[in-house]
Amino acid sequence: MIYDNIIERRIVKNGQHSLVLEISKDDYNNSYNEYNTEIAYQIVNHHLDNRGDDGIPTDIKIRHDDENIIRIYANVNYLGNDHSNYGSW
To answer: Edge-to-edge strand order for the sheet containing 7-13?
Structure first.
């Protein structure tokens, strides 16, 4: 899969970070032949690693629709890891 073609959207509401990754159906199907949470988890983790993001993804869901877009939804937790300490010495 071409990870550079992923569109990321983030929302922070009441301190909870959420993200949506959008992937074209063609890009997704070049690497995977099914839609499941395990694959979605791998994609989210790889995406966060590529960005240097130390968030811990939870509540991962994958959806595909008639628009030929695959959407992966996840909450990203930062409490208790290094991200919450950025900028402090």
So the answer is: 7-13, 16-24, 69-77, 56-64
